[in-house]
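Q: I have two molecules that I believe assemble together. Could you output structure tokens for the complex as a whole instead of separate predictions?
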Amino acid sequence: MTEALQPGSTIGILGGGQLGRMLSVAASRLGFKTHIFEPSANPPAGQVADQVTTAGYDDIDALKAFAASVDVITYEFENIPTAALDALEAAKPIRPNREALRVSQDRLVEKAFLRDLGLTTAPFAPVTDAASLEAAIAQVGTPAILKTCRFGYDGKGQARIMEPGDADAAFEAMQGADAVLEGFVTFTHEVSVIAARSVDGQVSCYDPGENVHKDGILDTTTVPARLMPARRMDAVLIAGKILNALDYVGVMGVELFVTPQALVVNEIAPRVHNSGHWTQNGCAVDQFEQHIRAVVGWPLGDGQRHADVVMENLIGADVDRLPELTKEPDCAIHMYGKAEAKPGRKMGHVNRITKAQAAQK
Amino acid sequence: MTEALQPGSTIGILGGGQLGRMLSVAASRLGFKTHIFEPSANPPAGQVADQVTTAGYDDIDALKAFAASVDVITYEFENIPTAALDALEAAKPIRPNREALRVSQDRLVEKAFLRDLGLTTAPFAPVTDAASLEAAIAQVGTPAILKTCRFGYDGKGQARIMEPGDADAAFEAMQGADAVLEGFVTFTHEVSVIAARSVDGQVSCYDPGENVHKDGILDTTTVPARLMPARRMDAVLIAGKILNALDYVGVMGVELFVTPQALVVNEIAPRVHNSGHWTQNGCAVDQFEQHIRAVVGWPLGDGQRHADVVMENLIGADVDRLPELTKEPDCAIHMYGKAEAKPGRKMGHVNRITKAQAAQK
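A: Yes, here they are, computed for all two components at once.
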């Protein structure tokens, strides 16, 4: 356990949403304190953290004070401004590292990184102006999706181009931002691998989950996913290749499209991932604790799946179903402590244990 | 869900130790905020709670302000002064109720309550002075244990009387406190039932666990306990009888001695209990969430056991084994965030999943 932090140390977490909240709880279970840095007041993670700093990512003094108060820094989202990272990194280690952020903050850089690793991605081409969009359509074909290179999530910052005539409207939708045109992938379903890598290079992957989206937002993740055994192994090997290439420390979500020919890497997220929430009720050590273990330099925990689980997100008015959900057997409720249920807002999730697995001992 | 509190409400918790800490985390999982009231500075529960009040139980103003800030009040320990309870109860409901506290705060009252319910207890007699001790020894016989009526825990406030000649020394050890003499019970092992009762009178018990103590402190709890099926049912019925008699709301720990003839009720604790920690990794809904569900007026959750588990307390220097424990498969670590490991101090526990159970569907 070289470099390992001891219980009682403080983990700084950038971002105070539900991921920061569940990371904070997992950290406390291992005896660590947490300090949340979040621009918005009263963040969900603040309710379960030892300290909260409310300040913007442009407040360098606040960032420095935050860094001085913690032993290691991690994050719940990838869009952290470079200047903020510079200020933080001068004081304390940031895990996962800057390279993981650099790659995942930009769709074009990410796609190129994955392609250069020899992995299969959707066909893609850069789009910076009308002329390059025309060239991109010629290269990638239609139908295709135009996506901003940065700051897109849950389907935001995207426009479909079903035929070349849609190009102008799609380009307008980018509002001048650099973009990437991605060819459609005809896939049967989407799976994701939640993978972890420790400081000393140990890699551990959770069993892939199968994701279903609704209105561009993750609706359910089901484990086990529909995958042939050889494909299941491929999925894990792909994730391992990505983590090793980045000298990654922490948990990463790797989204894969399943086609008859291949596993196509859709995108990577250098953090705990919504599609890994099932691990809270399916494994001895969940993705949040696994991330914390990696970040503090501990050995990775036991991520073996001991149950079949269906995770369902509670979005917006879904929380009105809470009275019924509390009466359901084998249904674990996870609420995020958010005050107001707005359309599209992730309010919580439930993990339904559909079958317990006998131990393989 | 009459009387049910909604997520976003605040639960006040008296006591900021590890039980308050794990209650706080469970409450957050259901979307509740917590406010900890604790005389000591920097309590373990404070690291994961929304608010902390540091004040004594004699600080009536602080108690009133605390009560005003919460929607319901619960507690992690039973020795709350009566005046404090009076001040709190005038403002907000206290769950479990005052009657449960009155009974469990005094060993003599508790023993009489259990006997009057028709349950089997160790033979006992009150001891207030040397003469009553002589009479008690005549009635109960030796060997016996003299215990203070109040404020005893983890073997403290107890003295053994192996023969009548030990009486004087045992009486001295009580330091003038009212006491109760309890006859020895020759038992094969100890089990405990973690039972819960909801606001509307629903009762749910976890599978009994088998407890092993070391130096007067719980060392391990193993589920399933060694109990014949009929005895297992008896244990649950005993717990249900106690909860119903007290119109109890919340989780209670009921310790039972197993003898060839009977289940002898040793003691009850009107709170989550160390011997119920295994539920964190053996059930969809653990004892902490079950207690919170009861206290906020929700239906009880699914307490069905889905794994065999051995809980082991980490006492004092046991935490030095943490590096090894982090490498163990099927071993879930729960640390309490205490700064210093003193002899006898509960620093954390581990739950080892020894066998997963196939679901009974």
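A: One point stands out. Residues 229-245 of chain B form the longest helix (17 residues).
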